[in-house]
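Hi, here's the filled form for the chain we discussed.

Project: internal
Contact: R.S.
Residues: 371
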Amino acid sequence: MIKIEKITLYHVSMRLKKPFKTSIETLQDRKFLIVEAIDETGRTGWGEVSAFSSPWYTEETIQTCAHMLRDFFIPNVVGREFFHPSEVPDSLARFKGNRMAKAGLESAVWDLYAKKKGISLAEALGGKRDKVPAGVAVGLASADEMLREIEQYVKEGYQRIKIKIQPGHDVDLVRAIRSRFPNVPLMADANSAYELKDISRLKELDEFQLLMIEQPLQADDIVDHRHLQKHLRTAVCLDESICSYDDARRAIELGSCKIINIKPARVGGLTEALKIHDLCREHHMPVWCGGMFETGISRAQTVALASLPQFTIPGDISSSDRYWEEDIVTPDIRIEEGFISVPDGPGLGVEVNQEIMRKYVTQMDVFTTNN
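And the returned structure, exactly as it came back:
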């Protein structure tokens, strides 16, 4: 039994080492909500809300998440007792949507639960690996800049390269990369930049033996993704389209994709992510873990999730120093010979360095059973 006695919501603002450009947005200043949950014994669990500052990825923003957590979710959880973290989403089910806000709160309870059991988060989730392959994403830039960046990542041992694409910055770019790196596992992420009328353009990518094209069409175009997948040899991977178990079930039944990207934040937390993983395993659908330019809190959680058996493709799991001059956890998440070790300490297996975190905190909200 876990009783949540206190929750502190830290508003954190950090700056990426360099801007990262997608087909929709350029990111550099990154805001987070860090959730610290304390149980009746004084044990601490950590979670992270990784929504963006504008609603370009999902409808949620860091501002809407702060509102939902302060006014609805945290007051509903403080003072309650939970036998298992999977009860947290049930306790919030009457509140519609807002999955990223829910995920950040639930993940803190998962950390508490694993610590109380004296096991790692990976073990609590059913993970089977002690290390996971590292992958990296490369933002939109000139072909020469992207080639230089990819060369560096290949030298560092990353086992999969993801590039961002958009109309007019796709076929020739992929051709140049494939010419330089013919054997590197390569995928392209469109972030919904295309329409079904672009099918002939997307078919041109078939010649480059890509692992997948991620989210080529709009998030709600599950039927159009089915038509697209029928005409492409390259696997379509769905990201923004998959926000729940039911979304994954529909995509599998329709044949809208051959691969699914599971992000705990996007689907509402680890409990829903586990359900999607198990569904995909039942249907022999490969999955991988996407990234959200997170701190080490979410990155450790993602590494733990990626240790499950159906995660057969390297995900967006990079070293902390890929994005940050300093992370807020110790030890840093680091790549070694192409892999990232799954933390085996209790809970997340990393410690929040509060001295470092305080440098980036802009606001704190405290909730107790006495509020």
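Let me know if anything looks off before we file it.
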